[in-house]
From TrEMBL:
Lineage top rank: taxon: Bacteria
UniProt keyword annotation of Coiled coil present: yes
PANTHER family membership: ATP-DEPENDENT ENDONUCLEASE, OLD FAMILY-RELATED, DNA REPLICATION AND REPAIR PROTEIN RECF
Chain coiled-coil ranges: 472-518, 606-633
InterPro entries assigned: P-loop_NTPase (IPR027417), RecF/RecN/SMC_N (IPR003395), TrlF_ATPase (IPR054787)
Organism: Mesorhizobium escarrei
Entry-linked Pfam families: SMC_N (PF02463)
UniProt KW Cell membrane keyword: no
Protein name: RecF/RecN/SMC N-terminal domain-containing protein
Length: 998
């Protein structure tokens, strides 16, 4: 014998609400009027019979007899004698053969009337049998059921309408249930081609509250399309039963025989509990081995809270109120709804359970807090005097004082969604935190094989998209460089730029004209010269040629020096770039060795970079030598014997020119007056010609600021610039496309996750509440702000003015398809084009930065975007955000730890609660324990809470906390619900039935 439970444990189970128990509602007792296989119904037989029932796992029995309640009354008598303290429920079941037939072979349909034992007195039952007439007539009068004898039990029938009329005269509607057989001698044998049979079958279906049958008929009777006339049929429960007629048949009570499966009913062990299955046929009845929650309760005991205990510490004298004393709240393994008036302590229970469950939402507590804005129970003198104890089904216990902090080192054992947390998420403008919460739920649907050791959605995203983001970064660098060139080319293509060049060219041409005009009148060489004068003249001519050569060599040296310095810069840059590449590759290799060590590969064999800078170094050294030689300072002393052909450096060439110029000046001083005038003329012409030459420049290699260079630039504007600009635009478009494609690779990651949850989202969508998920590109909510940060909106242009500019931008954005590159690029080009006509530089604070912003495509991102009714998260109201978050946690979260929700309905409308949330809660409690704090009946009753915990806080009498627990069908709990909860009309109609209010 197992040890009997303690009275405290028994009371605890009674308070746990509706629980899954085995019921057998069709069971014949010894002495049954037909086919009795028990033998003689003597004392021994009866004691054996009730002993088998008492020892069975079945907790409720429908004791059945044909046209009689004798079996029930005798069972109750013997049960009370043998087991006066038994908690098992015995229900009278009257089996009747109906006059109506539906099958081809003419077999009658059997139906059953189950009556509430609370009103099933011998007198009431006798009256019912005495009122109900059979079809058998004797002496011109129909026999009543109470008048039947053993000779006519097998033949008697009754009309279902007579059954209904007799029941109405004896019992209230809530005191009986009509259950019709759906298998043998039942409705499923209806003649398929007989309209009469189908019509009778539908009528019997409408009259019946439930059916006896096999599990394969459950779906049929839960459907809403059973009737021949296409009218809507109500879902109704189906029970299997042993239909035992002998002790051998009682072996069926185990449910092990395939043709006689166990019937599990989730309800109070009362007739009211049985009636609850009429209102919740799908969720309150299970035919088979064991309901899933019982299997989980056994195998996953660490995921179920058994009870919460709260008591004052021994040293507490009660000076700050009674508060919590001897509190022991048992929790149902499915849905517990905590109800109560405002300030009754509902949130206190949720906070305490969450504290003991190591929630990560402690900063959002509304009861266990001492914040400046909300000084509640954690202020000095209160929480420190009480301890909480959370007992899990596994037997593990967590206990701590109520002013303790959450143990951050221990794993989170519960998921808590407090009211304050809801408000912070749903009122958040940028919805980043809300999106992270939803992404974590989505992450739970990623196959473990696809998670790649990532701990969160963000980690997986980073890992999956790292290469694409690095690629995009490199493209953006090229794009910024190209934007600089494009702006330069655009500036050069402006008419003003060409006009400016032409003006500069005109200035130079005028300078040339002026120089030409400044040439002195031609001076003829003197005719007669002495030998000395002739020699001096020839010397000056020779020295002048030498001076011109030195000047030409200097120009050449300067040109070479420029080329060498450019070469040196490029070679040095190349060398640095190669060294940087080498360093980067080496660094990446070290990272790879750590990151991919699990692959068992030799990274050095996979990645090999050969760097040989010998040629580059030689080049740099040689160029450096050339530069040094050209820039070498002059230390030469020049005289007539100096070999000027060997002078090479620029300083030396300039010193040599000075030496020659001085010699020319000395020689000229010895000339006659006519010779000097002539030499001055020659010198002036030479100097002016050189100046003109410097201004005009050389066409093959024009120097900056010369006529040749300006003419070349103007010619380029006329001939080449349009092509260069067009090519630059094409290059920019190609870079933008590469950026888009890089982003598209990231979007592919989101697209892969989309399929993980979209089927479940489809299942929860209903009416106006259509939840969809889209792996697509979406613009940043800050796009408008960032766009206008680049503009001067007080300047004339398409976006002038705050309000007008915003409307203009919104109009352009309204036609953008963010998943189409062509659409996005057209939008960008349209913006730039519309601003160019009014001077884009005037309208922008920095046109280069504006171009970088627009063409970098940084203002939209691939995103796993949730949509509700076609709106994304940023467009949803706080209530819609809250509903969406709840749907995700209730319907999609794969975490099996208990879920505690504190008053989520405050920002939700009743229609949403009733239509969507209640259904999601029903789904959630199939896979996890749910504790719901609420004041809305659409949640507590609409979701068919297995347990209602009604709490009170008597503030007048020392803040004494009290509570009452029970099932919806419990009369006492019913009273609490009706007093505390209120809701919309559809919810009230549903509640009226569930409350069994007539």
């Amino acid at each position: 014998m197992s040890e009997s439970p303690t009275p405290r444990a028994t009371k605890r189970e009674a308070h746990r609400g509706s629980q899954w128990l085995k019921w057998d509602l069709h069971l014949h007792a010894p002495g049954t009027k037909l086919s009795c296989g028990y033998g003689k119904p003597d004392e021994a037989t009866w004691k054996r019979f009730v002993a088998i029932l008492e020892q069975s796992e079945v907790q409720a029995f429908g004791i059945t007899d044909y046209f009689s309640f004798d079996g029930y009354l005798n069972t109750v008598k013997w049960y009370r004698q043998s087991y006066p303290d038994s908690a098992k429920l015995v229900i009278p079941n009257l089996e009747l053969r109906l006059t109506e037939t539906v099958s081809i072979d003419g077999k009658n349909v059997n139906t059953h009337v189950l009556i509430d034992p609370a009103v099933a007195t011998p007198e009431a039952l006798s009256k019912f049998l005495n009122d109900l007439e059979t079809h058998i007539s004797v002496g011109g009068r129909r026999l009543r059921c109470s008048e039947l004898t053993s000779a006519n039990y097998a033949a008697a029938t009754v009309s279902v309408h007579d059954v209904k009329d007799s029941l109405k005269g004896c019992f209230a509607p809530e005191q009986y249930i009509i259950v019709t057989a759906a298998g043998n001698d039942g409705l499923r044998g209806t003649a398929k081609n007989s309209q009469r049979s189908k019509s009778i079958s539908d009528e019997l279906d409408r009259i019946s509250s439930a059916f006896f049958g096999k599990s394969n008929s459950t779906a049929f009777f839960l459907s809403d399309s059973r009737y021949e006339d296409a009218s809507k049929s109500e879902p109704k429960p189906l029970y299997d039963a042993s239909d035992a007629h002998s002790f051998e048949d009682l072996g069926r009570l185990t449910g092990d025989e395939p043709s006689y499966q166990s019937t599990w009913i989730k309800a109070n062990l009362t007739f009211r509990g049985l009636r609850q299955t009429i209102f919740e046929p799908e969720h309150r009845v299970f035919v088979g081995d064991r309901p899933t929650v019982l299997v989980r309760l056994e195998r996953e005991a660490t995921q179920f809270i058994d009870r919460l205990e709260i008591n004052p510490l021994a040293a507490y004298a009660g000076h700050n109120g009674t508060w919590f004393r001897n509190v022991e709240i048992p929790f149902n393994p499915e849905l517990t709804a905590i109800i109560g008036n405002k300030g009754s302590g509902k949130s206190a229970v949720a906070d305490i359970v969450a504290l003991l469950g190591n929630t990560r939402q402690a900063k959002y507590f509304s009861f266990l807090t001492d914040s400046q804005a909300n000084r509640k129970f954690k202020r000095p003198g209160f929480a420190e005097n009480f301890s909480g104890r959370l007992v899990w089904k596994s037997g593990s216990i967590v206990e701590r004082t109520l002013n303790d902090d959450v143990d951050e080192l221990s794993p989170e054992a519960v998921k808590y969604l407090p009211q304050n947390y809801f408000e912070s998420l749903t009122n958040e403008i940028e919805v980043q935190a809300l999106r992270r919460e939803i992404e974590d739920v989505v992450f739970s649907h990623v196959d473990i094989s696809d998670k790649m050791d990532a701990k969160s959605f963000h980690d997986l995203e980073e890992r999956k998209t790292l290469n694409s983001r690095q690629e995009a970064s490199q493209i953006k660098t090229k794009l910024r460089e190209l934007n600089i060139r494009i702006l330069e080319l655009e500036d050069q293509s402006e008419p003003e730029f060409k006009t400016k060049l032409q003006a500069e060219l005109g200035v130079l041409q005028k300078q040339v004209s002026t120089l030409e005009a400044s040439k002195p009148p031609e001076e003829a060489a003197p005719a007669a010269q002495s030998a000395e004068q002739k020699a001096a003249t020839e010397e000056i001519a020779s020295q002048t040629r030498l001076l011109d050569d030195l000047a030409a060599r200097e120009k050449s040296a300067v040109t070479r020096l420029g080329r060498h310095k450019t070469t040196l810069q490029e070679a040095s840059e190349f060398k640095d770039a190669v060294n940087a590449l080498k360093s980067r590759v080496q660094g990446d290799k070290e990272v790879f060795k750590t990151k991919y060590s699990g692959l068992g590969l030799d990274v050095d064999q996979v990645i090999s970079l050969t760097v040989n800078l010998e040629e580059v170094t030689k080049k740099i050294e040689a160029v450096n030598e050339e530069i040094v030689a050209i820039e070498r300072e002059s230390a030469m002393v020049f005289d007539s014997k100096t070999d000027l052909s060997k002078v090479a450096s620029i300083p030396e060439l300039r010193a040599a020119q000075k030496y020659i110029a001085d010699r020319i000046a000395e020689t000229r001083a010895a000339l006659s007056a006519p010779q000097q005038r002539y030499q001055r003329y020659v010198q002036a012409v030479r100097e002016i010609s050189e100046q003109i030459s410097n201004i005009v420049g050389q066409k093959d290699s024009p120097k900056l600021g010369t006529i040749a260079e300006l003419e070349a630039r103007i010619a380029r504007i006329d001939n080449d610039l349009p092509g260069e600009l067009s090519k630059a635009y094409e290059d920019r478009r190609a870079l933008c496309l590469a950026l888009f494609e890089s982003k598209h690779k990231i979007r592919t990651f989101y697209g892969g996750l989309k399929s993980k949850v979209e089927s479940r989202l489809t299942a929860v969508s209903t009416g106006d509440f259509k939840v969809s998920i889209d792996a697509s590109f979406v613009p940043s909510p800050k796009f408008g702000e960032e766009f206008f940060n680049h503009l001067n909106q007080n300047v004339s242009g398409p976006f002038r003015g705050v309000a007008e500019g915003a409307r203009a931008l919104q109009q352009k954005l309204s036609i953008v398809d963010w998943n189409s590159f062509e659409s996005i690029f057209s939008f960008v080009d349209d913006v730039v084009r519309s601003m160019k006509s009014g001077g884009i530089r005037r309208q922008t604070k920095d046109v280069k930065k504006f171009h970088d912003f627009l063409y970098s495509l940084e203002y939209f991102e691939p995103r796993y975007e949730l949509r509700l009714g076609g709106k994304d998260l940023n467009q949803l109201s706080p209530g819609e955000k809250g509903l969406l978050l709840l749907v995700f946690y209730l319907h999609l979260d794969t975490d099996s730890s208990p879920l505690i929700i504190d008053q989520p309905e405050d920002n939700l409308d009743n229609d949403s609660i009733f239509a969507v949330l209640a259904r999601c809660i029903r789904d959630a409690k199939k896979t996890r324990q749910v504790i719901l704090v609420t004041h809305n009946p659409n949640l507590a009753i609409g979701a068919d809470a297995e347990q209602i915990v009604y709490v009170r806080l008597d503030k007048v009498n020392g803040y004494r906390f009290s509570y009452d627990c029970g099932a919806i069908e419990n009369p006492n709990t019913n009273g609490h619900i009706v007093r505390v909860l209120e809701g919309s009309r559809p919810a009230f109609v549903q509640r009226r039935l569930k409350y069994q209010i007539t």
